[in-house]
Amino acid sequence: MATIPFSPKSASNSKLISSFMHFNGCNGNPKVFLVTPCWSSRTPRRKFCVKNVASDKKQQFQDSVTQEELSGCLSNFVPDSASIASSIKFHAEFTPTFSPGLFELPKAYYATAESVRDMLIINWNATYDYYEKINVKQAYYISMEYLQGRALLNAIGNLELSGAYADALRRLGYNLEDVARQEPDAALGNGGLGRLASCFLDSLATLNYPAWGYGLRYKYGLFKQLITKDGQEEVAENWLEMGNPWEIVRHDISYPVKFYGEVISGPDGNKQWVGGEDITAVAYDVPIPGYKTKTTINLRLWSTKVAPEKFDLGAFNAGDHAKAYAAMKSAEKICYVLYPGDESVEGKTLRLKQQYTLCSASLHDIIARFEKRSGETVTWEKFPEKVAVQMNDTHPTLCIPELIRILVDVKGLSWKDAWDITRRTVAYTNHTVLPEALEKWSLELMQELLPRHVEIIKIIDEELIHEIIAKYGSEDLDLLQKKLKEMRILDNIELPDSIIELLNISEENSAADPIEEAEIPEEDIKATDDEDQSEELDENDEKVTTKVTFEPDPNLPKLVRMANLCVAGGKAVNGVAEIHSEIVKNEVFNEFYKLWPEKFQNKTNGVTPRRWISFCNPDLSKIITKWSGSEDWIKNTEILSTLRKFADNEDLQSEWREAKRKNKIKVASFLKEKTGYIVSPDAMFDVQVKRIHEYKRQLLNIMGIVYRYKKMKEMSPEEREQKFVPRVCIFGGKAFATYVQAKRIVKFITDVGATVNHDQDIGDLLKVVFVPDYNVSIAEVLIPGSELSQHVSTAGMEASGTSNMKFSMNGCILIGTLDGANVEIREEVGEDNFFLFGARAHEIAALRKERAEGKFVADPRFEEVKEFVRSGVFGPYNYDELMGSLEGNEGYGRADYFLVGKDFPSYIECQDKVDEAYRDQKRWTKMSILNTAGSYKFSSDRTIHEYARDIWKIYPVELP
Q1: How far apart are CA 936 and CA 656, in angstroms?
Q2: What is the spatial distance between Cα 24 and Cα 82, in angstroms, rounded to a whole number?
Q3: Which reaction(s) are listed as its catalytic activity (predicted)?
């Protein structure tokens, strides 16, 4: 009987035992082992007996084998398909997620995932043991969203075990793809923000950068989208219903999180936050493996609960069940739903609780890890030398006051030191120029929920005002008032006493908010004689001048501007595309840019080429590898540019078209399964998949389709065939549950599809399909088979986009505006290989002004489409509200704020150019190849290198 000494204090030993249950890597003979407690006859020490249950052959492992030798042996072991099959069978039998006996697809998936996780655990532990041993500086990426998608194929792909797992599952009677489809997408994100975060983690691991991700473990996700006759309906996600084989709950890692209560001052002047509501954040860890590397980093997700004593047993036994578990439900609901509706005070409170929970638990964990690595002597000045915190948008803004609170109130640092440490540690990525997305929280709500943080934010605001005065002086109060109105963190809130004293502002000189010119009664104005035509005031009035006032407006809410707090409290601010970063500097945060130009950077987004070409598009990947000469492009995407020299090669073009057709056949099969619609793979596949939002202009796309359909109906069959290229127009994306206008757009698209797809006169010339519940896994099917992709946002409103990069990587040609990363994609792929239309970003303000002045005249074709929609051709639903939003000159929900009507003629004329290009398949294929070749710049590996070099100051650390 083989034995391994076991110490309950050794986490790594227990993991080694777990590994030995499946693989005997030390002698190169893969086996399966069963671990049972036993006693050695030679020594009274407790041991674990490792019994070979595959062949029942007994082997003795000598006590002289060290843990390090075992770990090294295992980490270098590459299992074959037989050992993998044995491991899967072991988990099917001994990891009892399902009942014994049957081995059906769901059970096969879980057993397979658990066998992969066992291998990841070895590298996972080794990675962080090594990081702690050398005390390396780490980056901590904090995000409310991680849109991971399925993990199985990605994990075995990164481990280079796809073939071995496919063979192993064939031995067990299953197909790897069928097993992988059993995995639900992790419901931890919604859109590009979350997908970007997941791509970044993949690149961090692949490039061997020391890093962690932090997020929340949402039980029900955002929502599962159903498409019914009434449009979009929302139901809760059930992704955790059968458990998550990729996560490991860390019961020993939890932190207290407080809400409400009050702040009291001690005799020494120190502040304490006491009372209120206490919950506990518990860590759930998910391994993120790198590609062709041992590095496996961590995504730590927080779940919330309360201590068992919070359950009121007396109330429960008395029949008051709601009261009995009120505290439990209050804690648990923090992690129920991503972005709960915030129309109500309760919804706003829950969102703020979510954000603070993420920040507080993560920072406590970061600080605990720093203290552990520091040993007996903690030097807080070195904290920024070991820790970099990146806030993904404004959701984690509370990291700034929370870090200060912990350093000052808990660790005993001075305000000056804590403020300096924070400003050298935390950085901020801005993802939007939309005002509603630059979060502003009610001061009253924050004061109630987080009283200590409001105190800290007020001090930060005061520090900021002093910096503004130091920069601009206090002589010109008019200028100063303008700067403060733009830059203060606290909006519509009185100035601090120290500032009032500094400026020597009298009370009567601070009576209103705006700059006002004093009204001078007409009878007090004295005219001089006719020889002197000037006017002057009498002696009593000559000192009445323009007066600057700083008092809040009682009619406006008092707010905390989170984006301003990010800029003031962070060491760096970056946009996510070149045009977006310029807008951030010149418009969104222009006053801050003038004050701190050195803080502002650009970091154009990127996506991982592993998931978004190599794994999701194996047919195209084989072609790229063949023509580039190796698989090195998967980590070094600059190699993709070598395809440019082969773009006219007929052999490459033939292979390229064949790969695209195979992917289109997969898409057609998928659409039939998901929607019931049958589409022809011979048609052009035209795709727009992303969050449904007015600025992303799905409405422009569908109105263009309506125009196309109307023109078809007016033609003879022969004219239609000659004029139009057959198209399948595919939509996907979720409208936020309370976003009424976005949900109207979903309804409109589905109604158009229901009419067009059943029109026998049109047949395969035009199909319109809305794919329900769009997610990463659906994207992995649609993107490889797409030929035209729509990125048609109003110029200047899309920060970057990442789906445009994924489509371009897969040889899909883009139609779009000069917005976000479209600008850089067009530069890289070539102007002739991008279909451009629409107004430019610098023109938008003037166009809206023109509209407000009543000078805009809509194109007759646009008016024709609106009238056609209102005629009822697409069903009985009343589209007056939707069409009405495109009319009028001003007013909320009107006046076509997103310029659909303005860009419509340019858009449909550009679509004619698309048809013309598609008819020439040689030209189209060349354009497709050049899109893939030009996408080399948009790898998340490149983006991460820039973050690591410019903001985080961290360096790759490869495991020995």
Answers
A1: 18
A2: 12
A3: [(1->4)-alpha-D-glucosyl](n) + phosphate = [(1->4)-alpha-D-glucosyl](n-1) + alpha-D-glucose 1-phosphate
Q: What is the CATH number of the domain that holds 576?
A: 3.40.50.2000
Residue 747 scores a pLDDT above 80: yes
Q: Is residue 884 part of a domain?
A: no
Q: What is the DSSP string of 659-698?
A: HHHHHHHHHHHHHHHHH-----TTSEEEEEES---GGGTH
By the 10 Å C-beta count (0-12 exposed, 13-18 middle, 19+ buried), 33 is classed as buried
Give dist(CA 68, CA 905) in Å, integer.
69
Checking if the pLDDT of 655 tops 50, the result is: yes
User: Encoding tokens for residue 25?
Assistant: 């890597």
User: For the segment 578-587, what is each residue's pLDDT rounded down to a tens digit?
Assistant: 999 999 999 9
pLDDT at 746 over 80: yes
**One domain for residues 627 and 589:** no
Token readout for 660 is 């695209």
Neighbours of 392 (CB within 10 A): 23
Say if residue 228 is in the same domain as residue 92. no
Nearest to 59 by CA among 69, 46, 50, 68: 50
Radius of gyration of the chain, Cα coordinates, nearest whole angstrom: 31
Asked if the model's pLDDT at residue 320 lies above 50, the reply is: yes
Q: What is the mean pLDDT of residues 808-817?
A: 98
Q: How many domains does the chain have?
A: 3
Strands 535-537 and 525-527: antiparallel
**Res 77 pLDDT > 90:** no
- Residues 598, 644: one domain? no
Regarding whether 584 and 488 lie in a shared domain, the answer is yes
Q: Is residue 436 part of a domain?
A: yes
Same domain? 560 vs 655: no
Residue 39 inside a domain? The answer is no
Task: Return phi, psi of residue 137, to 5°.
Answer: -70, 135
Q: 773 with 810, same domain?
A: yes
- In terms of domains, do 129 and 234 share one? no
Sequence-separated (6 or more) residues with CB below 8 Å from residue 651: none
Dump pLDDT digits (tens) for 849-874.
Answer: 999 999 999 999 999 999 999 999 99
**Predicted TM-score (pTM) of this structure:** 0.89
Same domain, 814 and 712: yes
Query: Please, what is the Cα angle at 58 between 53 and 62, to 5 degrees?
Result: 120
Nearest to 762 by CA among 699, 730, 719, 732: 719
Residues noted as catalytic = 431, 690-691, 696, 802, 806
Q: Is the distance from CB of 747 to CB of 771 less than 8 angstroms?
A: no
Specify the DSSP class assigned to residue 892: T
pLDDT band per the 50, 70, 90 thresholds, residue 891: confident
Measured in whole angstroms, the distance separating CA 862 from the mean position of its chain's CA atoms is 35
Q: For residue 779, what are the contacts with CB-CB under 8 A and spacing of at least 6? A: 149, 689, 803, 806
Query: Taking 50 as the threshold, does the pLDDT of residue 520 lie above it?
Result: no
Q: Quote the crossing angle between the two packed helices 67-75 and 105-134, to the nearest 10°.
A: 130
Q: Answer yes or no: is 872 within a domain.
A: no
Secondary structure element (H or E) that encloses residue 369, with its range: helix 345-374
Backbone angles phi, psi at 386, to 5 degrees: -120, -15
Q: What is the mean pLDDT of the chain?
A: 89
DSSP string, 311-325: S-HHHHHTT-HHHHT
> Per-residue pLDDT averaged across 791-805, rounded?
96
Nearest to 483 by CA among 595, 559, 558, 569: 595
Mode of pairing for the β-strands spanning 835-836 and 813-816 = parallel
Token pair in block for residue 702: 């569908």
Q: Which parts of 757-899 fold into alpha helices (H)?
A: 776-785, 803-809, 822-829, 844-852, 860-870, 880-884
Domain that holds residue 161: 79-134+150-184
- State residue 98's pLDDT score: 82
Distance of alpha carbon 605 from alpha carbon 940, whole angstroms: 7
